[in-house]
Each structure stands twice: as structure tokens, then as C-alpha cells.
Specification:
Order of helices and strands of chain B: EEEEEEEEEEE
Number of strands of chain A: 11
Strand content of chain A: over 45%
Largest sheet of chain A: 6 strands, mixed
Radius of gyration of chain A: 13 Å
Shape of chain B: globular
Oligomer: heterodimer
Number of strands of chain B: 11
Structural class of chain B: mainly beta
Order of helices and strands of chain A: EEEEEEEEEEE
Helix content of chain A: under 10%
Largest interface: A-B, 23 and 27 residues
Number of helices of chain A: 0
């Protein structure tokens, strides 16, 4: 089975840095994704990690430690528009390579 | 980039009726599409994996006779909610995998369908 945990809510200040953690336990691991989702909209892809280490893409970075079953998404220079839910998803090593999502972290950016 | 559409975006129906939701990959072929359900302020729950030309694979606890899935072509999958009840009200999202895509970007999400059953 799959078990993916994230904090439910976080608040951060505009211009600051925030780290959103995700821990997972899976029966088979084939990559970890981070998605951003604004209310009432579909998730949009942010990052993908399959090997240990840090992947950087502009203001967003994602880190993975497979041995610890741990990932984080780092958002720098926060902007008001970054207020959204951030979903951690693990891809299972199954025939269909399904994605299993965590509960999502609702980030509120305040002035 | 790859685009996935869903239709309708919003639907209101009465209890006991059936509703069909379409998911289309617009500029790529998808042998596999996924259907998710999302309750307010909750994350996505995988309902089923839709395979072109074969039966869908349902996740545990999802009634296959209630949520009928048909993946008749490489660009279209449909989800039919049969005999809808108010508890079926939810946000339904599909995603599609690009046959020719890089493994790291393989799923593209549709904009979702808001179903309200009265």
C-alpha cells in the first residue's frame, strides 16, 4: 500500500522561503512528483525526483531521500500568487505506474 | 505542452440520474488515463485506471458498477456516474499519459468536472 504524509496547512510571508515536507511509505517507488493546485483547478506539474538529491527550477526546488522516504519542496521569494495547495505524489512501481497523492498542503502567503 | 480537456466543467443533476464525463487528450495519444476524485480541501484520490481497449482497473473501495469507465480510443475516456446520489457530489479530475512522453512528465491533468447531485 501507499502512505504519504504532508502538513495540512502552512502560512508564510511574501518574499520569504518556505519548505513543505512529505514523507512516504510505498510498496514500490518509481519517482516522486510535486504539483501545485489552485482552488477549483487541476494540478499543475512542478517537479519530479527519482534519484536522491536536489532538483532546482527557478524559485522552486525539490529534494528527495529515498532511504528516508522523504522529500521537500522549497519555495523561495514567495509571491502572493503562490497561495495554493501543494500535492506530493508518489509513482508506484506497478503496471500502470499510478500516482498516489498525499493529503496536500494548503499554503497561504500573507503580505 | 500536452493538453487534456474535460467536459462538462460543471454539471448539476438530480438524484437517480446518470452523468457522463469526458476526458480527451487533445494533442497526444494516451493508452492510459486515470480518474481521480477530490473532496473539498482534500487531495486527489485515485478511483481507477482506464486502459484503451480493455477493462478499467478500479482502486479498492470504488464500485465499478457505479462508476462506469470506457476508454474507446487513444484520445478519449469517459466516466459515467450511474444512479447519482448527493454523496457523489465532488470534483472529478482525469489525467492522461503521453505515449511518447518523457517518463518524468508522463501525466497531464484535465481541468476537472464539478458534479453536484441534488
Amino acid at each position: 500500500g501507499q502512505n504519504i504524509d504532508q502538513p495540512t496547512e502552512m502560512t508564510a510571508t511574501e518574499g520569504a522561503i518556505v519548505q513543505i515536507n512529505c514523507t512516504y511509505q510505498t510498496s514500490g517507488f518509481n519517482g516522486l512528483f510535486w504539483y501545485q493546485q489552485h482552488a477549483g483547478e487541476a494540478p499543475t506539474f512542478l517537479s519530479y525526483n527519482v534519484l536522491d538529491g536536489l532538483e532546482e527550477k527557478g524559485r522552486f526546488s525539490s529534494f528527495l531521500s529515498r532511504s528516508k522516504g522523504y522529500s521537500y519542496l522549497l519555495l523561495k521569494e514567495l509571491q502572493m500568487k503562490d497561495s495554493a495547495s501543494y500535492l506530493c505524489a508518489v509513482r508506484a512501481r506497478t503496471g500502470a505506474n499510478n500516482l498516489f497523492f498525499g493529503t496536500g498542503t494548503r499554503l497561504t502567503v500573507i503580505p | 505542452g500536452a493538453v487534456v480537456s474535460q467536459h462538462p466543467s460543471r454539471v448539476i443533476c438530480k438524484s437517480g440520474t446518470s452523468v457522463k464525463i469526458e476526458c480527451r487528450s487533445l494533442d497526444f495519444q494516451a493508452t492510459t488515463m486515470f480518474w481521480y476524485r477530490q473532496f473539498p480541501k482534500k487531495s486527489l484520490m485515485l478511483m481507477a485506471t482506464s486502459n484503451e481497449g480493455s477493462k478499467a482497473t478500479y482502486e479498492q473501495g470504488v464500485e465499478k458498477d457505479k462508476f462506469l469507465i470506457n476508454h474507446a480510443s487513444l484520445t478519449l475516456s469517459t466516466l459515467t456516474v450511474t444512479s447519482a446520489h448527493p454523496e457523489d457530489s465532488s470534483f472529478y479530475i482525469c489525467s492522461a499519459r503521453d505515449l511518447g512522453g518523457d517518463a518524468s512528465y508522463e501525466q497531464y491533468f484535465g481541468p476537472g468536472t464539478r458534479l453536484t447531485v441534488t
